[in-house]
Recover the amino acids of this structure.
């Protein structure tokens, strides 16, 4: 049992990014990611392109119906426009600075809090929901709408990403997720991840984060895109069935990840089976 815990802790240990000037990220930004667990305020799309992204999500939301704000989860290999967002060269340039030249997209999720949405996303570490080893996923949070503290922007707890797995408990009613961190109020001052539509952030998979209810009259939609290097392994065969990966850049020398080519359709059809969860 002790050996198992030690192996899990080692697999969950944060691996600092070597200090360098990357394709897009400065050395200072990489330092910030290593120290705080995130970097934010990055731009992928112009105002006009961001408006097209919003119109695209609105179309999917209409197709998905009343629960669409949370339902468009892991469709990156089934929707052409979403495939394009996940393989956007500007986003991938930033991700490459953190992960290296071989990049796998293994999940995505449009996460829309509608005006007046009472649900809380409790403080959590994404990797605690995932059957992946080691913990090397970088999450892009792409703003579809302008997002700020008023309409329930995602909040980070800086410097929690290098503490290993944190203690958690079952979450109560009114939460999007079924578990939450214990004692998060003692982990430092939260940072609101305020972004304009078309901007994005990057955060480590062990960084504690969450969001409050949306008490405003404005929607808050973001697209999370999960990227990892190919050496990451799926550790649960059942969970693996829910993954439809894209080899976005480079190649997979491990041959662990099945690549899905760009789909032809943008018709949202609900699917059954495992979901790769997390929240924002």
């Amino acid at each position: 049992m002790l050996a198992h815990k030690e192996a899990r802790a080692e697999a969950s240990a944060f691996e600092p990014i070597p200090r360098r000037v990357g394709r897009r990220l400065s050395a200072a930004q990489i330092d910030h990611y290593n120290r705080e667990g995130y970097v934010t305020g990055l731009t992928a799309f112009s105002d006009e392109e961001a408006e097209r992204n919003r119109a695209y999500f609105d179309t999917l939301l209409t197709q998905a119906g009343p629960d669409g704000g949370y339902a468009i989860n892991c469709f990156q290999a089934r929707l052409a426009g979403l495939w394009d967002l996940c393989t956007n060269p500007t986003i991938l340039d930033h991700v490459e600075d953190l992960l290296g030249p071989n990049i796998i997209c293994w999940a995505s999720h449009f996460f829309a809090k509608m005006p007046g949405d009472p649900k809380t996303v409790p403080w959590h570490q994404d990797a605690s929901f995932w059957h992946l080893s080691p913990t090397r996923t970088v999450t892009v949070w792409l703003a579809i709408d302008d997002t700020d503290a008023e309409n329930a922007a995602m909040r980070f707890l800086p410097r929690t990403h290098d503490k290993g797995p944190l203690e958690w408990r079952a979450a109560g009613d009114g939460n999007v997720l079924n578990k939450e961190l214990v004692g998060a109020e003692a982990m430092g001052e939260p940072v609101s991840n305020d972004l304009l539509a078309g901007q994005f952030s990057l955060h480590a998979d062990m960084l504690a984060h969450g969001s409050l209810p949306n008490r405003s009259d404005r929607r808050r939609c973001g697209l999370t895109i999960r990227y990892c290097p190919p050496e990451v392994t799926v550790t649960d065969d059942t969970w693996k069935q829910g993954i439809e990966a894209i080899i976005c850049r480079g190649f997979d020398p491990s041959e662990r990840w099945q690549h899905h080519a760009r789909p032809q359709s943008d018709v949202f059809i609900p699917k059954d089976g495992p979901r790769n969860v997390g929240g924002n």
